[in-house]
Specification:
By secondary structure, this protein is of the alpha+beta class. The protein has four helices and eleven strands; from the N terminus they run H-E-E-E-H-H-E-E-E-E-E-E-E-E-H. The strands form three sheets. Strands 4, 5, 9, 10 and 11 form a five-stranded antiparallel sheet that branches. Strands 1-2-3 form a three-stranded antiparallel sheet. Helix 1 crosses helix 2. The radius of gyration is 33 Å and the shape is elongated. About 3% of the residues have low confidence. Belongs to the SF3A2 family. It is found in: Nucleus. One of its GO terms (molecular function) is zinc ion binding. InterPro entries: Matrin/U1-C_Znf_C2H2, Matrin/U1-like-C_Znf_C2H2, SF3A2, SF3A2_dom, Znf_C2H2_type.
């Protein structure tokens, strides 16, 4: 580092470096030292974000270039956090891999399961039967869906979706809800239902998947208007 021509220095002398110049020289020396000991490709805390900056996942700091990050790794904050992490891992009984710095057993594994990109083979065949209970006069539906090409360890799944969750019909109509049934590799099918409360009492709502015929059954009954209106009212006798 050249010190000639500084204020207060003699010709040919070194002079006194300013505080900013000293910090710049120190960071440069730390960067060169880190380049000799650290491989950024194997650093588990080194991360390049979408704007081109570099982040330290351990200290949650942002750096404009790799030199700044390398200088940070030699600083007190990063070294202190490394010591704390090592002490915590030792206390919890987990050993760190000497190369990656991650707990052993995590190498080659992903924390988030990869999303399956299966090719959809179309929609399943289905049949809908309208039902009415002869005693309670409740209206119901019986869904039968055929999945002849379904996987051996896959079972159809279902869920109810409100009109405000879907993005197909805009604006949303609060008078309707949707029943979704999914089973890979088939496309997810949706049935548009009245926005009425489903009776989930035993025998009213049930599902069954026949693994031999590859057919999925779902039966539901809607609560009557009286049950929906007076649900939860104290003193009202429940329906038997």
């Amino acid at each position: 580092m050249a010190y000639e021509g500084r204020v207060g220095s003699r010709f040919g002398g070194g002079g006194v470096a300013s505080h900013s110049a000293s910090n710049q020289d120190r960071r440069e020396r730390l960067r060169k030292l880190a380049l000799e000991t650290i491989d950024l490709d194997k650093d588990p805390y080194f991360f390049k974000n979408h704007v081109g900056s570099f982040e330290c996942r351990l200290c949650l700091t942002v750096h404009q270039n790799d030199g700044s990050y390398l200088a940070h790794t030699q600083g007190r904050k990063h070294q202190t956090n490394l010591a704390r992490r090592a002490a915590r891992e030792a206390k919890e009984g987990r050993n760190l891999d000497p190369i990656t710095g991650l707990p052993q057993g995590m190498i080659g594994q992903q924390l988030i399961a990869p999303r399956k990109n299966l090719i959809k083979i179309g929609r399943p065949g289905y049949k809908i039967t309208k039902l009415r209970d002869p005693v309670t006069r409740q209206l119901g539906l019986l869904f039968q869906l055929q999945y002849p090409e379904i996987g051996t360890e896959i079972k159809p799944r279902y869920r109810f979706m409100s009109a405000f969750e879907q993005r197909v019909e805009v604006p949303a109509d609060k008078n309707f809800q949707y029943l979704l049934v999914a089973a890979e590799p088939y496309e997810t099918v949706s049935f548009k239902l009245q926005a009425r409360e489903v009776d989930r009492s035993p025998g009213r709502f049930w599902t069954h998947f026949d693994a031999d015929s590859k057919e999925f059954f779902l039966q539901l009954f809607f609560k009557t208007e009286r049950e929906e209106r007076y649900a939860g009212v104290p003193g009202l006798a429940p329906r038997s």
